[in-house]
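U., I forgot to send this yesterday:
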Amino acid sequence: MGTPKPRILPWLVSKLDQGQLEGVAWLDEARTRFRIPWKHGLRQDAQVEDFGIFQAWAEASGAYLPGRDKPDLPTWKRNFRSALNRKAVLRLADDRSKDPLDPHKVYEFVNAGVCATAGFPTEPGRGGAGLTNVWLCFLQEDILELLNDMVLVPLPDDGALGQYPQHSWGPSLDNPIPCPNPGPSENPLKLLLVPEEQWEFEVTAFYRGHQVFQQTIFCPGGLRLVGLEAGDRTLPGQPIVLPDPGVSLTDKVVTGYVRRVLSSLGGGLALWRVGQRLCARRLGHCHAYWAVGEELLPDCEHGHEGEVPKDVDSDVFDLGPFVTDLIAFMEGSGHSPRYALWFCLGESWPQNQPWVKRLVMVKVVPTCLKALLNMARSGGASSLENTVDLHISNSQPLSLTSEQYKAYLQDLVEDMDFQATGEA
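Result:
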């Protein structure tokens, strides 16, 4: 039989007590807070010693065997981080991974009274049979993990007992019902970065400030805002046909101008996702200006952020800054990140002017980003205390504590930073 995989918390406590790994150390006498070196793998001053704790866990958990496996620093670090994030008794107390001189993270046990000691003191009147509080804490963690992996099999409906063998009242030991693992093994927010996962968009169109269209849709290969003729259907991306203004507008002059704008869209205004970015391209003669604004109001005061070029790809949104701003919002910055893309078609951007006077304005909202911000707002952003239910596109709901949610966001930023640096 092989050596069983150790539990990370007892293993980590033993490494902290030994003090043999560079930068891995307790920060208080009660042994409730500790630090872990957290240097970016692509920094010029990165040394093998900076990843000692990650490699040690990879070896202890059986994920890496020196001499057999190829060293994989990013995977070691990611697996170690994910293992800690899944521990409810542990939380990230201070993230100093961006410190230029001493990048590290500080973790602490949530219940200091439970996980304060690491020796084997004898309880009064119990002789030598006492267990330490910290090992009781780890035992509790094991029980919780076991319960999380269990799936209760419902009793059969009335009259359905005949499906089982005679004298059997349920699944036999020889034919057990498989128990799926209900939870993800890694950061569930990584779904946002998987290129194959399609984002869902809510598209809303306004003619002179009047909402004339709204549709929420999954768009494999992206979407194209097109006019009455629907453009060239051989082009990639799902065409979103903007409606005829004659159905909703009574002003004949305005109706005529809107129709001219729509007719000049040609192949359309294309929008699609590339990794953590959204890109846009103009395929027709109709000029288009864009900005990232509030969901209920475009940013007219500061002007547009750019013009969508014709037949050239242009980045219009980056997930990285959004997640960074979302973390700052949760920490009390008071400034919520923006995620709604606004496009002004056929006219200049309404800078310092009422946007409702523009002929055609279109808002595109990635619904997953809206969900992330709503979760942060659910408890007041800076003082989240309750669990949040995660719903991303068509994924299964996942309940997270606020600390777990924030930790997953921080992990997401780090992964995106690594990918961006690697691409450069």
